[in-house]
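In response to the reviewer comment on reproducibility (Comment 2.3), we provide here a single inverse folding case reported in full, input and output, so that an independent group could reproduce the run without further information from us. The structure tokens appear first.
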């Protein structure tokens, strides 16, 4: 995962598919997935996010290591 210059989260294809699977998003919703992502914490080593399937309420935590600039 990386954050672009506009502050948008960019997931790799593998990360994206894993998220879709974890949130049980059907293939029919892939073009416009009902997902809300919010940052829940950052420290010196990692950033944590909560991803929610807005149709079902199912949530997962995403944790990404921070890379030095």
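Designed residues, in position order:
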């Amino acid at each position: 995962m990386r954050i672009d210059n506009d502050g948008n989260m960019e997931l790799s294809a593998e990360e994206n598919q894993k998220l879709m699977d974890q949130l049980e998003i059907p293939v029919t919703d892939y073009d416009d997935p009902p997902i809300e992502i919010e940052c829940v914490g950052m420290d010196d080593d990692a950033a944590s996010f909560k991803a929610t399937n807005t149709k079902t309420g199912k949530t997962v935590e995403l944790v990404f290591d921070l890379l030095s600039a």
